[in-house]
Amino acid sequence: MTRIKRGVIKKRRHKKMLKATKGHQGVRHLHFRRAHESLIHALRYSYAHRKERKGDMRKLWNLRINAAARANGTTYSQLIHGLKLAGVDVNRKVLSEMAIRDPEVFTQIAEQAKAQLAAA
C-alpha cells in the first residue's frame, strides 16, 4: 500500500482555520485544535444570535418610539393603539427612524393618534 503524504493539503486546511479564528484570544487563534473548537462554537453562537438580533432590534425600536412618544405627551402603548384606530399602517422600524431623523413628522403622527384616542 502506498503512503499518503498530505502536507500541502493539511497545511492549507490549518491555515484556513487559523485565518477564520484570527480575532480570538489566547491559543484559540494559534493552535489548530483549539482554533477548531473555537470556530465551531463561534459559528454556533453566530447562528443563534442572528435569530436573537431580530428581537433585540425590535426592543430598540420600541424604546426609541416610547421616548419620542413621551416627548409628545403620550406613551408607547397609547400611541400604537391610537395609530391602529386611525388606520395608520407604519411599522415600528419606520416609526423609530422618524422619531430620530424627522421629529416634526413624528409629532404629526402622534397628534393624529392622540386625536383618534380622544374621539374613541
Task: Tell me what you see in this structure.
The protein has five helices and no strands. It has a single domain (7-119), classed as Orthogonal Bundle (c-terminal domain of poly(a) binding protein), CATH 1.10.1900.20. The N and C termini lie far apart (87 Å). Helix 2 crosses helix 4 (92-101) and helix 3 packs across helix 5 (103-119). It is rod-shaped and about 90 Å long. The model has no long low-confidence stretch (mean pLDDT 95). By secondary structure, the protein is mainly alpha-helical.
Fold blueprint:
Blueprint: H1 7-20, H2 32-71, H3 76-86, H4 92-101, H5 103-119
Helix pairs in contact: 1-2, 2-4, 3-5, 4-5
Summed up, what is this model?
The chain has 120 residues and is an all-alpha fold.
Helix content: over 70%
User: Uncertain spans, ≥5 residues at pLDDT below 50?
Assistant: none
Find the CATH superfamily. Answer: Ribosomal protein L20, C-terminal domain
Kindly provide the name of the CATH class.
Mainly Alpha
Radius of gyration (CA) equals: 26 Å
CATH architecture name: Orthogonal Bundle
- What's the domain count? 1
User: What percent strand?
Assistant: under 5%
β-strand number:
0
Q: How many helical elements?
A: 5
* Shape designation: rod-shaped
Kindly report the CATH topology. c-terminal domain of poly(a) binding protein
Could you say which structural class the secondary elements and strand pairing correspond to? Answer: mainly alpha
